[in-house]
């Protein structure tokens, strides 16, 4: 294939190395900068030179376009420009002192009004002058799927949209509704999926989710959108569709599901669903409220039985708000009545699963009748109403009290939410509880998800360093799921890497997942970190992990979560 003559003749690796190489040839600084500008103007990426405060000094043609035009951008902070260009109010902070903390090649994806772009921030002492140059590097993502994948908008299991991408699409549909273009929203929940998942195992549950997603999409039109919203919940956005049309689509989906049989390990199972239907019109308030209304409709359908549809109008929003407030009241009442209990799941050495290294502490809630409520039901509400900090402290308080009464030296790991990471008083609270209970800090460990650690990077590092100085250990949980950078991993003072279970459980069937597990394990060991593999359900998987050299395993092969007192 002949090269396109309209394509740029020059490809720029990084402006820093280019300037350094040109200067080495004997050119003066001004000449070198002019040559760099020439090269920058002939690349499709946006190249933007910044001063010490992160204000734009100059930009190539692509960078000027991405920032809204050269005249408007010169002299303004890049974070202000990106925020103004973003439909979601995305903020990319470029502030004084930040350059010294940034690592060369660090990347994030920013949403712009005319598409998405990767943003690199590059800094070199060789570029320092009175203006203390740095460079912002923007690469526009031309493919919608690429942009969605980079922004975490695709569900890794089904390959369809994830919740964030779906909410963005809902917001756009609501904007169109203001001009008279109505759409429909379906909220679909698999009937008794938990029972099926337990009987078929996680692998069977995953396969079921992929197959039913295929059924749903086979019923839709090309302009409709399917998304996975939760573990067993799906959303459908029906563009340019009336409420009656949305109801007809829901009936079509139900009819197709009724004729479907799921076959797994010699079993043949009939599948049921519940669907809530909501109109997207000019009366809508927000994407979250629409989803809450559709979820309330779906719950009403579920109470009526298998394969039922419930259409709600304005009262769905009222019901959704009422249900949200009910969850707030239920959680607060459970805290007051001490109905939150701790479970634990052991983590063992891969080469000898009889040796329990430590246990991860998990939170469960009992309802008014004594039945267990799964975290998937109350955690989202706790996050919505700002109760996670209180629940994190409750877990820490309970587990330290339990440990102080035991004669053994068993170690326990507790999860720290993003909300607690942002709480400046959380570290002081941990230290206070350690002092009061007398528990050896080396016996308590903390698990922080990769996403939370990166989102609150500075706070995470401070917490790790402070508690690490007292002997506490840290796990980076779900590693590989978020938009991680090796620079982040290098800077975070963690002791263990928990390899995301989505890679682990599929590694024997998927060469890419196997490579991910192997690469993460090797990288961790090079950095002198221990590794833990989640979702280990059988000996075949454990054997493969042992051959790779993974240090520890966790999953149903070892033990299901059980009450802390029985652990």
From TrEMBL:
Protein name in UniProt: Diguanylate cyclase (GGDEF)-like protein
PANTHER family reported for this sequence: CYCLIC DI-GMP PHOSPHODIESTERASE PDEB, CYCLIC DI-GMP PHOSPHODIESTERASE PDEF
Family annotation (PROSITE patterns): EAL, GGDEF
Species the sequence originates in: Pseudoteredinibacter isoporae
Organism placement in taxonomy: Bacteria, Pseudomonadati, Pseudomonadota, Gammaproteobacteria, Cellvibrionales
Pfam families linked to this entry: EAL, GGDEF
SMART domains the record matches: EAL (SM00052), GGDEF (SM00267)
Gene3D superfamilies: 3.30.70.270, EAL domain (3.20.20.450), PAS domain (3.30.450.20)
CDD domains: EAL, GGDEF
GO molecular function, one term: cyclic-guanylate-specific phosphodiesterase activity
Residue ranges constituting the EAL domain according to the UniProt record: 324-567
